[in-house]
Amino acid sequence: MDFELLSVKFTFTWGFSVKAPHVSAAQFSALLPPPSTLIGAVAYGLAKQLNWPECELSGRTRASVAKRIAEFIKSAHFGLEKTLDGGRPMHWVDITRVSALPFLEEKYREPNWKKTWFGIHGFGKVIMPNAKGRVVFVVDSELAHEKLGEKWRVLLEQSAFSMISLGSKEGFIAVDEVDMKKARILKERVKTAYYFPTSAMLNCYPRPEELESSGFWFHGPTSSHWLAGGSQRPVDIIPYTLPLHKIRREPVEIEVQLSNEGLALSTDGSPWGTVIGFRRWYE
User: Fold this and answer.
1) 206 preceded by cis ω (within 30°)?
2) Higher-confidence residue: 259 or 224?
3) Residue 196: strand pairing partners
4) Cα-based distances in Å from 201 to 94, 197, 206, 256, 262
5) Mean predicted confidence (pLDDT) in 105-116
6) Which domain CATH number covers 158?
7) pLDDT at residue 45 tops 70
8) Which of 17, 97, 216, 248 has its CA 20 to 30 A from that of 142?
9) Domain total for the chain?
10) What's the pLDDT score for residue 118?
11) In 28-151, which ranges are continuous DSSP H helix?
């Protein structure tokens, strides 16, 4: 296995909004940006550089071009820095007028039922102005070279610098620093500042019950999440442990005892240089 970690440091303008799994009209946001959102954000810059389309045909349906990138970005990990001015994520809901057509039976889409076409719903977002975020992408060096050519490192670093937002509703970010380094495997007990799949650990400190958790869509290239109408298709939801204290809602570093399913990759052994995923993602 030959992997490199593409690290991105950035600042949130106000926060972000990413629709959480299993919600429809009540569009509550995920507490932290899921891996698929992170991959989509870096895919934007790469698509611009290579003149890729936003979507392409995959069989008989449309697929996001981010599906191409998910072939060599094996996982994506998010963490929040602990800063003096807080940077703690806070759920918020805006009351907005939205189209109800996607949720109506076909008979109610006729013009004589026009009064039912719009409704009032909560639109969820997470507020954390000026929060400092970090993202790490685990890049399969051999596959990236195969797909992007000799300049794959430059293309990915430039794409990371081109990240302008996370999620919807203009969740703007300002990238401060980008770095790419070779990774090595760490075993047994490690420390990380990023979220990770819960089943990749045996135990951790702080204890699991003291930490926030969430379910995120599987982000690999075979996931139907990348396809048009993905919300109506079966998608694996993977439980994640988040590096946030459940009561204080502040960022924490987590000491993790890896399970047989888990694998840690690191550039320097530090919490900010170490990520945890499933062993099967990297094999």
Assistant:
1) yes
2) 259
3) 241
4) 36, 8, 13, 6, 6
5) 88
6) 3.30.70.3120
7) yes
8) 216
9) 1
10) 86
11) 35-50, 66-69, 141-148
